[in-house]
Inverse folding.
C-alpha cells in the first residue's frame, strides 16, 4: 500500500472503482482491462497496482460497494415504523434491487472469477459485507413477520439469495439472445428485475402474513 493518508487511499480506491463501474455500463467483464480502467482515472495505470493487484479485485470491490448500498436500503425499510403487508414488503425489497443491476450482474456472471483471482484479504472483506446483507434481510423478516421461526427465516435465506444469482440473465437479454430465442421458437416474457423478484418474495412469505 502506498504511503499517504487513509483518506487519500480510500479516495484513490473509490476513483478506480468508479472508473470500473463506468466501463462496465458498455463493456463486458472479460473485455475490460487494467489499462482501460487506468485510462479513466487521474493517475497512471501502474499506480492502480498499489491498490488492486488484478482487475478481479476491482470488480470485487465494486460488488462489495453494491452490497453496502443495498444493505443501507434494507435498513431504511426495517426502520419504517408502520407494519408491512407481504405485498408491500416484497415491493419495497424488489425496488431496492432494481437499483443494484451491477450487483445482480456480477453475481450471476463473474463471481467465481472475482473470488478466485482476488487476494484472501479482499475476499474476506467482501464475505463480511455479504454476511451483513444476510443479516439485514433477517432483521427485516424478524420485524415484519414475527410468526417466522428461526428455521423459517433460514429457509427463506437459502431460497432467496441463490434466486438472486439467476435474476440478471432472466431480465437482461442482448439482441443476439433475443434473435436466437425467436429462431428457436422459445417463448419468453421480458420482465423487469422488480417483476421477477416481487412475486417470488410474496410466494415465500404469504403464509406468514398476520
Amino acid at each position: 500500500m502506498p504511503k499517504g493518508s487513509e483518506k487519500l487511499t480510500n479516495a484513490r480506491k473509490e476513483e478506480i472503482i468508479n472508473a470500473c463501474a463506468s466501463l462496465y455500463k458498455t463493456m463486458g467483464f472479460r473485455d475490460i482491462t487494467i489499462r482501460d480502467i487506468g485510462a479513466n482515472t487521474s493517475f497512471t495505470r501502474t499506480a492502480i497496482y498499489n491498490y488492486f493487484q488484478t482487475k478481479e479485485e476491482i470488480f470485487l470491490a465494486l460488488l462489495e460497494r453494491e452490497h453496502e448500498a443495498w444493505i443501507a436500503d434494507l435498513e431504511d425499510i426495517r426502520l419504517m415504523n408502520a407494519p408491512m403487508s407481504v405485498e408491500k414488503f416484497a415491493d419495497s425489497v424488489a425496488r431496492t434491487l432494481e437499483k443494484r443491476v451491477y450487483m445482480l450482474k456480477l453475481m450471476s456472471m463473474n463471481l467465481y472469477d472475482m473470488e478466485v483471482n482476488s487476494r484472501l484479504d479482499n475476499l474476506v472483506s467482501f464475505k463480511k459485507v455479504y454476511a451483513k446483507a444476510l443479516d439485514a434481510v433477517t432483521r427485516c423478516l424478524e420485524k415484519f413477520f414475527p410468526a417466522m421461526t428461526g428455521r423459517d427465516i433460514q429457509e427463506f435465506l437459502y431460497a432467496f439469495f441463490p434466486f438472486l444469482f439467476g435474476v440478471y440473465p432472466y431480465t437482461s437479454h442482448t439482441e443476439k439472445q433475443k434473435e436466437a430465442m425467436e429462431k428457436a421458437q422459445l417463448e419468453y416474457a421480458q420482465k423487469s428485475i422488480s417483476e421477477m423478484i416481487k412475486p417470488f418474495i410474496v410466494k415465500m412469505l404469504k403464509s406468514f402474513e398476520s
